[in-house]
Amino acid sequence: MVTPYLSSLHKDKDSLIASWQAVHGAIAGSPGRGATVADLLGYSVYYYTVYRTFGHGTDLALSRELLGQLLQLLAQTTRAVWTTTLLDQVTALAWLQAELARYPAATARPAGSELAQLDAALLAEAGALQAAATAESRPRFLRIMLYFYLRNRQQLPTGHWPQMLTMLTALINAPDSDFWFPFGEANTASPKPERTTALGLADGLAGELLLLIQLYEADGQLAGIRQQVRQGILYILSTKREVDFSEQKYAIFPAHVGGRQQEAAFDNELSWSHGDMGQSWLLYKSFELLQDAELPRLAELVGLNTLLRTDVRSTAVTSSRFDSGAAGVAHLYRKLFLASGHEAYRKGYAYWLTQTRSWLTHELPNGFYGHREGDLRQGLVGVGLVLLSAISEEELGWDRFLL
């Protein structure tokens, strides 16, 4: 893997900084900061990343203060159900808490009790999900695995991470369990109930396989992960089609596969959350685990095809947003470039950064992000994080909790 200094290669860095300053001004002036879990989380991650980029202690202090408020809010709220959205949020919290632990402050409010409460609640939830071992429990269980994977191990009770690994090992040792992916159900003698399998990064198979790859890297004893990832890759590849731009068939892979006949449903979305770029990223990363030389070749074919898609018709990009807009596309090209060193991806990165800036010139004056500035995926802070990565001289790592 190459680690070039991307921002030094961007010809218009001053314009990137100007765009970020406009975004930062809107974020700093947001009247609704801190109203919800999503806001507190988004702003705390954002200000920590601003600190990492520019080194101003006031930003670090603000991030720490907002995180403390977030932990208090979570501790005061009783939750009967841990939704995938909430689990995504506490996973980001785990990453941020581990990062802030690198910069101890004598004046910081101790957060041990709230974290211990959160750790215990998530460990109990993981146990219930592992016992249920259903397809519906898998996305939530894997998110809890990511939470404990990202947590600062020195701040965790001694037995928590080993308990999580034991649960995952038990599930891996039952590969035919309903917990795992419904590969090939249409061909079984007694088909299971009809399911829909999303294939994207945000809420689909690609994201779950990438998490399994991370977990294997954390503990090479989880040998069964290799087989799950291999089967998942083969399943995704089995859904591909030939593209034909003249017929508006832009995507190689479907958005989801569903029904007893496992019918593929295609759309033209190109984004962080869904589409071919996520599959290309998965194929590059899976080579690190499976060591199959065909995987980076396929990853390149898929990734380079996405570069031909630049208009609304072929991408469905209509905003600067991270989850479904230009900022997320730009950041994925950054990831593809860092994984491969392919110059074409760097050009794609520069193009979509320019598109992000273009959308912002319309969105910021018109209040497009009003009342949702703090949302990491759908709000303005997500765009700000992408711009910070573009102007920083180091990898900021904020995307680790997003896979």
Question: Can you characterise this structure?
Answer:
With 403 residues, this protein is mainly α. The protein has a domain at 1-31 and 327-403. Helix content is 56%, strand content 2%. It is built from 15 helices and three strands. It has helices spanning 13-28, 37-54, 57-76, 84-100, 112-132, 138-150, 160-172, 205-218, 224-238, 276-290, 294-306, 312-315, 326-340, 343-363, 380-391; strands spanning 196-198, 256-258, 263-265. It has a three-stranded antiparallel beta sheet, with no helix packed on it. A hairpin with a 4-residue loop joins strand 2 (256-258) and strand 3. It is globular and about 55 Å long. InterPro entries: LANC-like (IPR007822). One of its GO terms (biological process) is peptide modification. This is Lanthionine synthetase. It holds the Pfam family LANC_like.
Quaternary state, please? single chain
Report strand %: under 5%
* Rg: 21 Å
Largest beta-sheet characterization: 3 strands, antiparallel
- Class derived from helix and strand content: mainly alpha
Number of helices: 15
Q: How many E strands?
A: 3
Residue-averaged pLDDT: 90
> What's the arrangement of strands in the largest beta sheet?
1-2-3
Distance between the termini: 17 Å
Helix content: 55-70%
Query: Could you say which overall geometry the principal axes of the C-alpha atoms support?
Result: globular
N-to-C order of helices and strands: HHHHHHHEHHEEHHHHHH
- Parts with pLDDT < 50 across at least 5 consecutive residues: 1-5, 185-191
